[in-house]
Design brief:
203 residues
């Protein structure tokens, strides 16, 4: 990897880590530089300003996670099979700081037009992915006519971000374990309604 590219990657990673651990309001150039172990001036050699860096960091982290989500959910059939994949991916999002960083940017984008536009674009990209995944799971089952894909995708994104906000506030990571466990029964019911029981496969 060229040195310039390596340095840029280091700055982006430091920005994500700082957002995730210190929050939006304290993710200054100085704080990000301290996290990454480089001089603050290095940031402005690679990025126009702090907002440019934060948006680039979100896209960088999002690209990496989107690649992972796409690979992990490829070929998954049915809600029951999807559930452990989503749980694994969520735990990775927590461990890498991705979800916390995104949640901080969502909160911090209020009142910042350029930042808000960039954050909305990334959220829409994930809504598109989620809508496609929902459509693939439902296929031509009767549920496809009852569940509006776009609205369901929006609800899933709201739940995802809200879960991180609540667990961040009370520090209880067991909350997500409880929710994923409770979702198992619902997943079975959805698969039954979609006709995925008895070994049937849904493409």
């Amino acid at each position: 990897m060229p040195r310039r590219t390596e340095t840029r990657e280091r700055i982006l990673r430091a920005a994500v880590d700082t957002l995730a651990t210190q929050g939006f309001s304290t993710s200054t150039a100085r704080a990000i530089a301290a996290t990454g172990g480089f001089a603050p001036g290095v940031i402005y050699y690679h990025f126009e300003d702090l907002e440019d860096l934060l948006l680039a960091a979100m896209r960088h982290s999002s690209d990496s996670r989107m690649e992972r989500y796409t690979a992990r959910t490829s070929g998954v059939r049915g809600a029951r099979e999807l559930l452990p994949a989503l749980r694994e991916l969520y735990e990775e999002d927590v461990a890498t700081g991705h979800i916390a960083a995104v949640q901080e940017l969502v909160a911090g984008a209020v009142g910042a037009t350029r930042l808000a536009e960039g954050v909305r674009a990334e959220i829409r990209r994930w809504e598109d992915f989620t809508e496609t995944l929902i459509g693939r799971l439902l296929g031509d089952s009767p549920l496809a006519a009852l569940i509006p894909g776009r609205e369901a995708a929006m609800a899933a994104m709201a739940f995802y971000l809200g879960l991180e906000m609540l667990t961040h506030l009370d520090g209880d990571r067991g909350r997500s374990d409880t929710l994923f466990a409770a979702a198992a029964g619902l997943a079975d019911m959805l698969d039954a309604l979609a006709g995925l029981t008895g070994g049937d496969e849904q493409g």
